[in-house]
Amino acid sequence: MKTIENKRAKEFIKSLIKRAQEDEIVSLSAQLAYFLLLSIFPSIIFGITLLGQFPISSNDILNLLHNVSYIVPQDTYILIKSMVLSVFQMSQKGNALSLSIIMSLWSASNGMKAIIRALNKAYNVKEDRDFLHNRFVSIFLVFSVVMAIIIALLLS
After folding, report:
1. What is the C-alpha to C-alpha distance for residues 24 and 27, in angstroms, rounded to an integer?
2. Where are the beta strands (DSSP E) in the chain?
3. What is the pLDDT of residues 25-53, one digit of tens each?
């Protein structure tokens, strides 16, 4: 009885490893993590630049960011603090706002494209959309996720 269970377990593990290699799980997950991590800093820059359009001083923002220093590593806090100061010292905030939203959308849509690619691979779906259609779908999905997060925050 135990030998049959051991044989089934070994077959299952071999099948699992084979399918993981065929579906490129490691490379797709690394790609997904890279693009989503890459989209964080343009999004932070966009948020800070957007706050710069309101009558808020940089000291008010830095006071709010001081609470973040308790949950992020010190080097990350210093990086975010320097980004806040440099964005608030820019004279052309409108250009920084438009540039940061473009960078943020582009990098977040790359992350969304990686999710689409991984799901297509997982469900054995062949991608038949062209580049522009795929980009528009990924940008639409980014907006949908952002709106879902905003609605969830407002309802909580």
Report:
1. 6
2. none
3. 888 889 888 888 888 878 777 777 777 77
